[in-house]
Design goal:
The complex is a heterodimer of chains A (154) and B (330). Chain A is mostly helical and 154 residues long. Chain A is 64% helix and 4% strand. Chain A has one domain. Chain A has four helices and two strands. A two-stranded antiparallel sheet of chain A has the order 1-2. The two termini of chain A are 12 Å apart. Chain B is built from ten helices and ten strands. Chain B starts with 10 loop residues before the first helix and ends with a helix. Chain B has 330 residues and is an alpha+beta fold. Classes of the chains: A mainly alpha (154), B alpha+beta (330). Chains A and B meet through helix 1, helix 2, helix 3 and helix 4 of A and helix 1, helix 3, strand 4, helix 4 and helix 9 of B.
Chain lengths: 154, 330
């Protein structure tokens, strides 16, 4: 039996969505044009702040759907014969933090709501910091061959 | 000028659905039918039929805000890659015919033919303080923010000068000064390029209940400021009285600056464009759609997606796929 709950298909979907979020998230910073990346054929869209922001929203929705699915399956089935690995637990916590801080940013971007500017800045920095941490932890997990989130109960 | 008939999302319903009802404490109430924004937000109304272009507002702004203007460190750090150019206004501080880091308000002048007459209109231009400002929403660093009183400010101690706020602003209002700000303490060669500056509507005065300097200094009473619903009503009354037109009420989804003019704004915009009086640092008067409308709609997707995911998981819609894969190997 594989140690990856949900199977490799769900894992691949998760990885591609996360990669898209990382790319469109980085595109929120004015770096792709400055460093000529958006000049590469087919990558001009990376310098379009509005487009990449909308893609970030759409990919966030997709990731939240995957997270919701995985959470429901965990509570329904997987938790009875699996347990989270230490690196899996860390990544789940980071993903939850990213979802929360991103959700607050989505709320803030609605015209009906006004958050204090300092709160917004802290949310921004938290979101950015958590994304960097998740990237580091995910890289460490892959490099050490422990990329699975859960393992079978022994 | 028409008002978009866009039905706003119910704030209470949206928050209730997210289980974040407590945030409604931060949320403003509605003001003005068909418009966004709250009555805690202050709106300025500019009666352009009264403006003679004397420049008293510009002088008061420059003098009163001088302490906020940048004092850059020179020489500027050499930036990498070479396409990143410094923007330096520190040797041209007296420029007052456009927006600069040292001039947050200037006056556009246009002449148009209207109803058989030549009408000259002077238009004080500065940040419009959008109700849902893309500069604040899209700043990746949280340096730009909107206050509860509707003032949109850039925090000059945090801004890195990437100029994204200018790129996403429909009027390209914020202006950059290189050689100042936080980026000098981080990686000045490789990231950032100074600080962005624009009108902060004299936030320190407004916080004390006083009027911004441009309003107080105007000898002709061109501008007035007050709660949103009150000022929207005032602008509409003014427009009715002069058979005039509004700009700023619905532009970019609504702003906290409303111009009232005796002539149509599309004519003014055309005249400014023809006179080459629009461009960098010289905002247009054209129609502007709501920059954040798509994001507002996509917010629903981020709300519904996890619900759909949970439902799929609970109902086991993908259980067979998952089970099949679990029984196999990665």
């Amino acid at each position: 039996m594989t140690r990856r709950p949900g199977g490799s298909r769900l894992g691949r979907v998760h990885v591609w969505i996360a990669a898209g979020l990382a790319l469109t998230g980085m595109a929120q910073m004015p770096i792709f044009k400055r460093y000529y990346i958006a000049d590469l054929p087919g990558l001009g869209w990376l310098a379009d702040y509005y487009l990449t922001n909308k893609l970030h929203y759409a990919l966030a929705a997709a990731l939240l759907a995957v997270m919701g699915f995985a959470a429901a399956r965990w509570l329904r089935d997987w938790r009875f014969h699996r347990r989270l690995t230490p690196l899996g637990l860390v990544r789940v916590a980071l993903l939850a933090g990213l979802a929360l801080s991103g959700g607050l940013r989505v709320l803030k971007n609605r015209p009906e709501l006004a958050f204090d500017p300092l709160t917004v800045m802290l949310v921004d920095w938290t979101h950015l910091g958590l994304a960097v941490l998740l990237g580091i932890v995910a890289l460490a997990a892959v490099l050490t061959g422990r990329s699975h989130y859960a393992s079978p109960d022994s | 000028m028409t008002t978009k008939s866009r039905v706003p999302l119910s704030r209470r319903g949206f928050l209730k659905a997210l289980g974040l009802g407590g945030l409604t404490l931060l949320a403003p109430g509605a003001a003005g039918a068909g418009t966004k924004g709250s009555d805690r937000e202050l709106v300025t109304v500019l009666d352009l039929s009264k403006c003679v272009g004397c420049g008293a507002c510009v002088a008061a702004c420059r003098e009163g805000n001088a302490a906020k203007f940048p004092e850059p460190v020179k020489p500027f750090p050499e930036m990498f890659p070479a396409r990143s150019k410094p923007e330096d206004w520190s040797d041209r501080r007296d420029v007052d015919d456009r927006l600069t880091p040292y001039n947050w308000l200037y006056i556009q002048s246009a002449e148009v033919e209207w109803k058989g007459e030549t009408v000259a209109v002077n238009i004080p231009r500065r940040c419009l303080h959008c109700v849902n400002p893309p500069c604040a929403n899209l700043c990746p660093w949280g340096a730009a923010g909107k206050q509860a009183d509707g003032i949109v400010r850039i925090n000059d101690t945090v801004c890195l000068g990437g100029a994204k706020c200018r790129d996403v602003c429909p009027w390209r209002i914020p202006q950059r000064q290189t050689g100042v700000g936080l980026y000098l303490k981080l990686l000045p060669r490789f990231g950032g390029n100074g600080v962005m500056y624009k009108c902060d509507r004299c936030h320190e005065l407004v916080a004390r209940g006083e009027s911004p300097r441009c309003i107080a200094a105007c000898p002709y009473g061109v501008q007035s400021i007050g709660p949103r619903s009150e000022m929207i009503a005032r602008a509409r009354d003014l427009a009715r009285g002069m058979d005039g037109f509004l700009y700023g009420l619905t532009e970019n989804g609504g702003t906290n600056t409303i111009y009232v003019s005796p002539v149509p704004f599309d004519l003014l915009d055309a005249a400014l464009t023809e006179a080459r009086a629009t461009g960098p640092g010289r905002p247009h008067l054209g129609t502007v759609a709501d920059s954040m409308a798509d994001e507002s709609n996509l917010a629903w997707a981020t709300l519904l997606a996890p619900v759909a995911g949970v439902a799929a998981g609970v109902l086991g819609l993908a259980a067979r796929t998952g089970k099949d894969k679990e029984d196999g190997h990665d």
